[in-house]
Structures are given as C-alpha cells and as structure tokens.
C-alpha cells in the first residue's frame, strides 16, 4: 500500500528538482496588456512576448456574450459556428471545417482516423499537441529530423502502412518555416496524408495572409485563433469526407461544449478583414529592422523572417539573466528554457502594433547588455 503522503512527496520532489535546475515554470499575473505594453505588479513594460501578431486581441467588437450551451452534436452547433466554418472554407479553398475550443484540442482530431499498424511521421520540432495526440493514438510515431525531406522520403518509401505526415507551417519556438509545398508533394507521391499545423502562419504568411493554404494544399490544416486572430479556439480544415469521418470519432469534438457563439461571431468579423495587407507590411518592416540591428550587435538569432525571433543563449542562466536585465530597461521578453526547447533562448515576438521607435528601444537595451 502506498504511503499516505506519497503524492505530496512526489509533487514536492518534482517542484524542488525543477527549481534547482532553474527550470521551474511559474505564472506571471498580467494586470493590463495591449499590443505594445504589459503591466505587471504596477509597472508598465514594452512587451515582446505576445502572439497577437496583427494586434487584433484588443479590437472592441460590439457583440453580446452568448454561450453555446452544449456540445456541437447535441444542441451546441449554432448558425454562427456554421457561418464561421463556411467563411474559413471560402477563404482557404477547403470543403469542410470543424471548430474546437483550442489548438491543442484541434490537433487531437486527425489522429482519430488512426488504426493499429498505421504510422505518424512528424517533424522533430512539431508542436507538443501533435506529439501527444500521436502517442495516444493506435498508430506508431516516428519523428524525422527538422525539415529533412530526404530522410522523410526514405521513411515513406520504407513501408506501405497508412501514414500521416505532420508538421507546422511556422515553428512556434524557432520561427522558421517548413518547406510545405515540397512536403505535401512528397506525401502525395507516397500515398500519405499531409497535415499542417498553421497556428503561427495563419494571418501572417501567404499572399493574402491566409496561411499555408496559399502556399500548398495539404490534406488537413489546423488554423488557430489565439495568435494572429487575437482570440481563442481553432479549426480543422479538410475534405468533406475526412471531416465527416473525424466527426465520428474525435472525442474532443464529441464531448466538449462548443465554442461560445459570441466568439464565433467575433472571429467571423475579424476573418473578413484579415486580408488587409497594411498590418503585415508593417510587421515585415519591423522584423527586418530588428534582425538588421540585432545581427549587427552580434546576437545569435534563429533563421526566421516571421514575427517569432529567437535570440539563442548559451544556457538557462544566461537566458534568465538577459530577460531580467531587459526588464530593468522596461522591456518584457520571456525566457524559454528546456524542456520546452533544447536550447534556452529569449523568444522575441514582434507585432504590427509596435513602432520603429519600439524596435530601436529594444535594440538599445540589447546593445547595453551585449
């Protein structure tokens, strides 16, 4: 029989071990935030941590609050949900969509198709939601080296097992992009299903900001609404037959209360204006300004031309120290540490609400701490 204090002792050991390694995860209560600034403990900081790439999180649509009341397959599928799904399909060229309460939930959905003997081949840096869902499925999981299509092609040729190839369009911690057109073509060549998590690409990449759908035609796409759309929730897009099949087995969809109706209405409004090019052009100018200045100072940056700009650090101690020193200059940038990433870093995120002066302020603070 376990000791009565077993679980308390285990929890204590976990927390103490993480603390001793400078890896303890802790929440920071934010009192106020907008596209540019964040207020913490009464102090206002210029913030470079939010995924609100286009500055839409604080748009003030006049929409009354309204819940869904039930799961979608009971009585929770409202006209607003249907309209959002239809608008997503018109924008991206897909036949059907399913809405979810989060990107993590949406990324469980494709794995509902898997049976024993099937395979999931996922990029080594694919999001934890993809990996968790694959490990919980009946399929086997194998992770190919990051963006290495040569090895992926070899693995695809090794077996006739039904296979899903999964990756991200823009990688959440590194900001670099997958070679999606080549990957989709490779999967099709080998009869595999291609699935792209477009969480950090939707609203940012593509000719009109509509993400990976304007770069390739994967069989399935996950788009999330908590990044460039400035809200929460997600959708899975695909052919009607795939979406219908997933609806039969995806437990997150079947047993979860549907997205609030007012959120679906808000997202439909924001989607209508997503193709406006001015915020994306502003965003690209700021990214180029930051990269030019930071590289000139000798900072090691990741290979990214997206809003996610990782400043790579030697170890956790350096990342924490640099984040604290920037905070003393009035700048809030989160330090990202293992096990979230293999190499500690500052994950600097630029958005369209920032100004050229904001980027100069960040660069000046970085230069003072080089």
Automatic annotation (TrEMBL):
<dbReference type="GO" id="GO:0030170">
    <property type="term" value="F:pyridoxal phosphate binding"/>
</dbReference>
<dbReference type="InterPro" id="IPR015422">
    <property type="entry name" value="PyrdxlP-dep_Trfase_small"/>
</dbReference>
<protein>
    <recommendedName>
        <fullName>8-amino-7-oxononanoate synthase</fullName>
        <ecNumber>2.3.1.47</ecNumber>
    </recommendedName>
</protein>
<dbReference type="Pfam" id="PF00155">
    <property type="entry name" value="Aminotran_1_2"/>
</dbReference>
<dbReference type="InterPro" id="IPR015424">
    <property type="entry name" value="PyrdxlP-dep_Trfase"/>
</dbReference>
<keyword id="KW-0663">Pyridoxal phosphate</keyword>
<dbReference type="GO" id="GO:0009102">
    <property type="term" value="P:biotin biosynthetic process"/>
</dbReference>
<keyword id="KW-0093">Biotin biosynthesis</keyword>
<comment type="subunit">
    <text>Homodimer.</text>
</comment>
<dbReference type="InterPro" id="IPR001917">
    <property type="entry name" value="Aminotrans_II_pyridoxalP_BS"/>
</dbReference>
<dbReference type="InterPro" id="IPR050087">
    <property type="entry name" value="AON_synthase_class-II"/>
</dbReference>
<feature type="domain" description="Aminotransferase class I/classII large">
    <location>
        <begin position="45"/>
        <end position="366"/>
    </location>
</feature>
<comment type="similarity">
    <text>Belongs to the class-II pyridoxal-phosphate-dependent aminotransferase family. BioF subfamily.</text>
</comment>
<dbReference type="InterPro" id="IPR004839">
    <property type="entry name" value="Aminotransferase_I/II_large"/>
</dbReference>
<comment type="pathway">
    <text>Cofactor biosynthesis; biotin biosynthesis.</text>
</comment>
<dbReference type="InterPro" id="IPR015421">
    <property type="entry name" value="PyrdxlP-dep_Trfase_major"/>
</dbReference>
<dbReference type="GO" id="GO:0008710">
    <property type="term" value="F:8-amino-7-oxononanoate synthase activity"/>
</dbReference>
<keyword id="KW-0808">Transferase</keyword>
């Amino acid at each position: 029989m376990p000791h009565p204090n077993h679980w308390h002792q285990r929890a204590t050991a976990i927390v103490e071990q993480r603390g001793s390694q400078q890896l303890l995860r802790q929440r920071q209560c934010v009192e106020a935030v907008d596209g540019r600034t964040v207020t913490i403990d009464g102090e206002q900081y210029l913030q470079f941590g939010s995924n609100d790439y286009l500055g839409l999180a604080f748009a003030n649509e006049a929409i009354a609050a309204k819940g869904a009341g039930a799961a979608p397959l009971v009585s929770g599928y409202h006209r607003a949900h249907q309209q959002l799904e239809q608008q997503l399909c018109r924008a991206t060229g897909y036949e059907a969509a399913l809405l979810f309460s989060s990107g993590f939930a949406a990324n469980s959905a494709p794995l509902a198709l898997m049976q024993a003997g099937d395979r999931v081949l996922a990029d080594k840096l694919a999001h934890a939601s993809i990996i968790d869902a694959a490990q919980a499925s009946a399929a086997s999981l194998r992770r190919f080296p990051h963006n290495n299509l040569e090895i992926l092609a070899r693995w695809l040729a090794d077996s006739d097992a039904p296979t899903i190839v999964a990756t991200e369009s823009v990688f959440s911690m590194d900001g670099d992009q997958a070679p999606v057109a080549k990957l989709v073509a490779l999967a099709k060549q080998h009869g595999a299903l291609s699935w792209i998590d477009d969480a950090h690409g939707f609203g940012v990449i593509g000719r009109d900001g509509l993400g990976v759908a304007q770069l390739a035609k994967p069989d399935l796409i996950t788009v999330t609404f908590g990044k460039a759309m400035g809200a929460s929730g997600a959708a899975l897009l695909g052919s009607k037959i795939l979406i219908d099949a997933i609806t039969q087995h995806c437990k997150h969809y079947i047993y979860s209360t549907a997205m609030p109706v007012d959120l679906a209405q808000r997202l439909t409004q924001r989607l209508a204006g997503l193709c406006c090019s001015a915020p994306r052009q502003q965003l690209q100018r700021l990214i180029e300004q930051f990269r030019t200045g930071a590289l000139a100072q000798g900072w090691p940056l990741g290979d990214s031309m997206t809003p996610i700009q990782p400043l790579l650090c030697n170890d956790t101690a350096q990342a924490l120290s640099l984040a604290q020193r920037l905070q003393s200059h009035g700048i809030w940038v989160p330090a990202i540490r293992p096990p979230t990433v293999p190499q500690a870093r500052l994950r600097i995120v630029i958005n369209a609400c920032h100004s050229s002066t904001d980027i100069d302020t960040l660069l000046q603070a970085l230069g003072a701490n080089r």
